[in-house]
Amino acid sequence: MNVESIDGVLLVDKGQDMTSHDVVAVARRTLNTKKIGHCGTLDPMATGLLILVIGKATKIQDLLMSEDKEYMGTMELGKTTNTQDAEGEVETESEVADFAAEQIKEAFDKFRGDFYQTPPMVSAIKKDGVPLYKLARQGKEVKRDPRFVHVYSSRIDGIDLPSIDFSVKCSKGFYVRTYAHDIGQELGCGAFLKGLRRTRSGKFDLERSLTFEELKHGDRSDVISKMLSLPEVSRLRGA
Q1: Is pLDDT at 39 greater than 90 in this prediction?
Q2: pLDDT of 163
Q3: Of 22, 55, 154, 201, which has the most beta carbons under 10 Å away?
Q4: If residue 23 lies in a helix (H) or strand (E), which one and from where to where?
C-alpha cells in the first residue's frame, strides 16, 4: 500500500472511557494524515469495533455506517438513569422481582423484528442543528421522533439478577441503551445499560482489529500494514 497516499479501512478495538473522536485524533497523529472518519459512534463507556475510513475510503463512510451491527451487553435491572446507561445519574429505583428466565425472555421477545424506538435525550441526534446531548446538559428535554429500527436476533447469555448479559443483532441507528431501558420498563422495574461491546459491523469483526494502545504506540508502517485496502473491502462486502 502506498505510504504517501493512504487509502483504506482500519479496524480498531476501542477501549473504555474514550470517545470515538479520541480514536480518530490518535489515528491522525500515528498515520500523519488528516483525512480520517469513523463509522458509527461508540459511547465512551462502550468498547469494541470502531471502523476508521482513511483517504479515499471516506467516500464509502455512509455506506459502511448503514450496515447492521452486533453487540454484547449487560443491563442492570431495578434502576433507570438519565442517560439510560451507567454514565448517568440514577432517576428511579425499584425492587427487582425474582424473575424466571422465561419472563425475561418474553420481555426481550417484545423487541424483535420491526418496531419504533425513541432515541435518548443524551444522544448525538440534532434538533435544529444542536446535538441533543448539549440540550440535555442544559437540563432541557425536547420531543424526539421515534425511529423505525429492526432487531434481527437477540440472545440472553446469562442471568445473575439484577444483571442480565445479552447479545443483539440490529439495524443502524439502534440505541442499545434505549433497548435496555425499554426492556426494564417492560419488566416493570426499570433498567440501564451497564456495559456494551460492539463485536461486528456489516462484514467487519474484531478479528483483524488493532487495540487503541497498538494504534497509539505502534509504528506508522505497522499500522498501515494492518489496514484493509479498498479492493479488500469490496471483496469482503461482496460488492
Answers
A1: yes
A2: 98
A3: 201
A4: helix 20-31
Instruction: Tell me what pLDDT residue 139 has.
Output: 65
Query: What's the chain's average pLDDT?
Result: 91
Catalytic site residues? Answer: 43
Give 106's contacts (C-beta < 8 A, 6+ positions apart).
none
In the numeric block, which cell numbers belong to residue 192? 440501564
Give residue-wise pLDDT tens across range 190-232: 999 999 999 999 999 999 999 999 999 999 999 999 999 999 9
Measure CA of the first residue to CA of the last residue in the chain; give whole Å. 21
User: By CB neighbour count within 10 A (0-12 exposed, 13-18 middle, 19+ buried), where does 209 fall?
Assistant: buried
In this prediction, residue 236 carries a pLDDT of: 86
Residue in the structure block whose three cell numbers are 505510504: 3
pTM here? 0.90
DSSP code per residue over 143-202: ----EEEEEEEEEEEEEETTEEEEEEEE-TT--HHHHHHHHHHHHTS-EEEEEEEEEEET
Cα atoms in the Cβ-side hemisphere of radius 13 Å centred on 5: 4
Residue type, 150: H
Band (96; pLDDT cuts 50, 70, 90) = very high
